[in-house]
Amino acid sequence: MTDVFEKPYNPKETEKRIYARWLESGYFTPENLPGERKRPFTVIMPPPNANGSLHAGHAVFVTIEDLLIRYKRMQGFATLWLPGADHAGFETQVVYEKKLEKEGRSRFNMDPDELRQEIMDFTLANKSHMEGQLRELGASCDWTRNTFTLDEKIVRTVYDTFQKLYDDKLLYRGKRIVNWCVKHQTSLADLETNSTEQKDPLYYMKYGPFTLATVRPETKFGDTAVAVHPEDSRYKKWIGKEIEFEGLIGPVKLKVIADEFVDPEFGTGVVKVTPAHDPNDFAMAERHGLEVKEVIDKYGKLNELTGKYAGLKITEARKVIAEDLEKAGLLEKIDSDYTHSVKTCYKCSRTLEPRILPQWFVSMKPLADQAIKKIEKNVTFYPHRFKKTAVQWLENIQDWNISRQIVWGIPIPAKICTECEDGFPDLNNSITSCPTCGGEVIKDPDTFDTWFSSGQWPFATLGYPEAEDYKMFYPTDVMETASDILFFWVTRMIMLGLYRTNKLPFDTVYLHGLVTAPDGSKMSKSKGNVISPLDISNEYGTDALRMGLIIGNTPGTPTPLDKNKVKAYKHFANKLWNATRFVLLNTKDYKKRGGGLEKQGAEKGIHHSHLLRLNELVEEVTDDLENYRLHLAGEKLYHYFWHEFADTILEESKKLLESDAETQRATQELLITILTTSLKLLHPFMPFVTEEIWGHLPKDFTDSDELLVVTSWPKAEETTS
After folding, report:
1. What are phi and psi of 318, to 5 degrees?
2. Of 301, 442, 537, 578, which has the most beta carbons under 10 Å away?
3. What is the rounded average pLDDT of the residues 379-403?
4. Would residue 22 count as lying in a domain?
5. 423 forms bridges with which residues in the sheet?
């Protein structure tokens, strides 16, 4: 048995073979687990985007979730870790558009069905590659239940939710202002935008009797009012009146309105109201019944309502119009150093153009109110501060635009009237004319926001409402994911889960932080500091990578991925290997007596104190794992095995093993007990090396023919009984 330990531990020779043994055993599937397991423990994997390789953030979630599943599996639970992949609508289409650009092609010149098929082929190829990487990281998920967000059962569930929301009057098709990306030609939800501080000129333009300030003179042709604060004494006499003045393309008539939104301290205290191109102005227009005039088209160019400026792009038009205003004596001054916040696309960083478009919106407040009550009483967050953050966001939630003008995704099952622009869910494709006006209807060309389908992931994957999986494994136990998608995903899963099932989809939320470069900076291709977790695992072993990602990684805080740290845990894997070699060399003559380890001499002196310390370790690590202090549990195991067992106990044992027979046997019992218990405790953290060692231990040591992956988690009293 010791021959294999003569050579250093080699992860490359071990990991694929071990993973194949696990797959062959079937133990990743709960129905195949040994013993009677009535208590389920369920984790639904956050589905990685199926458009590329796994990154460092994926490696963190795989490590954490696999650790939890392996721990609960060893505790005797019917564990289900359900894997999946996300079609990632907009994000995948953006990735594919870059590929098309390199090939000199554009999606706008392609047949939609052709484009959709190309992206499908691209996605499925990447999906297969990504799933291979999950296996490399040791993911002990149930591959027999692997699910894709475009699978028929998922699409059917999403469609049923869409119809139910409409029937319950929580879904409407509204012509409202949305965030529009000129480059990608789609609307985006507020969560898909970034707020960027930038400096722009602030133009002071003359509007009849007023001078007002704006950063967007190019939208002046869409003005339908000017506004002042109702308590601003400078302008009270103008409220309710109409002003007339000569503009750049003809005479202008605008009503003066009073609205508390207006900041008297901004500019001159008078603002122009352009409802079609500013969300705050749109809200004012709704309050005051103002006309809405769109003067910028979907390509970011001024339209026919702007006269001679039609066809100019926004930035070009701004410059030309400012020059013309100055020539006409309508420009009082320019403040060239005005700092303000603008919304930008989270993918291409271009400034978003507000547009009025008919889109599908979900009324979120009723869903949020229900979620708030449940979250406050029934959901535990790690770290705890995120509960307050989630509740505050829900308290201020806005209606959700779930329409996307892209081909890649789940098509919206609805018909749109070409005359009144009303829309109606049509899951069975049976509506032939508009129920509102009798006009012609066409199929809605849009797709769902990816987060609308992934927000239903826990109950959709488990076959709500009739499937046995749903009845057995829902609600799930813990949702582990990145802290930066708390609003994108976690809160939406809670809202939609409660809405469809009347149950919370999970009662525990564990949020890991961003994985950074070694210096703490954000990884980005532009900085050249992106570190591939798979490259590191290939160099140092998956177990070393996992320990490097767990130890020191507190929930919700950034975690540097440092190769030197991972390298240190490769040495730790070798320490396990070498310590095992020492124990095996010094227990060759050991034979168990009776039903297991006798622990003879355990009551004598140092042996007893070491067993008490081991007992204490089991209690501490178990308590840490139960309370999601994963980083502390890993650190304690590392220090115990290296410094207490390898450095101290093994050294002490060398003399004791040369003593009388009783002392020698008691020492052997001690070494075997500590080694086997340590392997069990370390298995969720370092599954490959511990499984490999376990397979080479004599059966007298393990009392089992089972793989370590299903060996019982140690109980504190067992180590001293």
Report:
1. -60, -45
2. 537
3. 96
4. no
5. 416
**Is residue 346 located within the same domain as residue 435?**
no
- How far is the C-alpha of 253 from the C-alpha of 242, rounded, in Å? 7
User: In this structure, what is the dihedral angle of CA atoms 333, 196, 519, 570, given to the nearest 10 degrees?
Assistant: -170
| Closest residue by Cα to residue 384 from 571, 239, 527, 510 | 510
| 274 phi/psi in degrees, rounded to 5 | -120, 80
Residue 513 placed within a domain: no
**Is 583 in the same domain as 699?**
yes
Angle, alpha carbons 669-671-675 (nearest 5°): 120
Asked whether 441 and 433 are in contact (CB, 8 A), the reply is yes
Residue 359, strand partner residues: 174
CA distance readout (Å), 375 to 368, 391, 503, 506: 10, 8, 12, 10
Calpha distance 534→62 (Å, rounded): 12
| Tokens at 267, concatenated | 């500019």
Instruction: Look at 702 and 393; give whichever has higher pLDDT.
Output: 393
CB distance 406 to 93 below 8 Å: yes
Residue 602 pLDDT more than 80?
no
Q: Return the structure tokens found at 29.
A: 């599937």
Torsion of CA 462, 464, 468, 472, to 10 degrees: 70
CA atoms within 13 A on the CB side of 10: 8
Examine the domain organization and report whether 604 and 682 are in the same domain. Answer: yes
Confidence band for 192, pLDDT divided at 50, 70 and 90: confident
For tokens 């400096």, the residue is 199
Q: Which helix (H) or strand (E) holds 270?
A: strand 270-273
Structural domain span for residue 252: 186-353
- Count of structural domains within the chain: 3
**Tokens in use for 675?**
């080694």
Q: DSSP string of 478-535?
A: EEEEEGGGIIIIIHHHHHHHHHHHSS-S-SEEEEE--EE-TTSPBP-TTTT----HHH
Bridge partner residues of 173 (DSSP): 360
Q: How far apart are CA 720 and CA 297, in angstroms?
A: 77
> At residue 118, what are phi and psi to the nearest 5 degrees?
-60, -45
Cβ atoms of 716 and 36 within 8 Å: the answer is no
What single-letter DSSP state applies at residue 347?
T
E strands in 129-170: 147-148
